[in-house]
Amino acid sequence: RRGTGDNGNVNVSRIGDSMVALTETPAPVRFDPATLETLGVYRYRDNMVGQITTAHPQFDAQRRCQYNYLLEFGRISKYHLYGLDADDQQRRRIATIPVQQPAYMHSFGMSSRYLILTEFPLVVNPLKLLLRHQPFIRNYRWQPELGTVFHIVDKETGEVVKTAHSEPFFAFHHVNAFECGDEVVVDIVAYPDASVVDQLYLDRLQSGLPVTATGQLRRFRIGLGASGGVTVETLAAVPLELPRFNYHSRAMRPYRYVYGAGSRGEGSFIDCLVKLDIEDGTAAAWHENGCYPGEPVFVAAPAAAAEDQGLVLSVVLDAAAGNSFLLLLDASSFTEIARVQLPHHIPFGFHGNFFEQPKAREAPLNA
Asked: What global pTM score does this model have?
């Protein structure tokens, strides 16, 4: 896809009663979950303006509110953070943060009280956008001298309670965030720089050159006091991407387990699934020669008592057979339970979600 568009090819979610396919432009595509027929773009009942968003909305079950942000380009650009109540189509502006050089942010963090925007130093000059004949990401430039900036925004008041700076790094995916005393803890799959973006172009992937498309799970502690700064620790040295956890029970709270897609060899493409135990730093893995798994989706068991009680689902490409299969792992032991063979291959995707039988007015799920 060149330029910008409404090709909802990044994630699936639910807004109110509508199932939607999402991308990084604010044009959710409604579809029928039974037939996959597209039903047109979802229309919000408000006048909020923006050109870029994330395909990773966050859902606060206690508030029954979905959160996201819009980037509005201009001479002075603006990040608009908003909330969308589960039964509403009208977005509610929470805060607006002006910015000279907007950052590429594929996701954001959320704790019980706060929304966390993490500005990586991969930035764009809105006055020099190339809107045609180039992938949109080519407008962005890596400027490590800017460092990384965390904006901590109160969900209720819209106040930016803290703007904190750290060393430059890059990331696609936040994992989880929670409050701990006078700190906000933010877990992110981090890279030293944005060179991973260049490695993911199709011609590079086809070249046979090494690919480092996995990062490391790092924990950032942001002090909210006047003298508070940012400290960082690596939670596990295991390379991973496409992180998932038990969002239903552990979002915005301390948690223990993270599931992800990983790589077994340095410079190799994603070829395994991993389960990280944050408490003791250990990791379990699933792999099979010639098989390349996609994002692991955690599905909690009904009435689960333990955080990791349930299944992990992943669509796996079997390169030798030329087809894909749906893999089911026991989330606790991380051992295979079953696989469902498909008669053809499924192209690599990004993100997915597990939805139970649709119910009237059911809350949207995190993406």
From this structure: 0.92
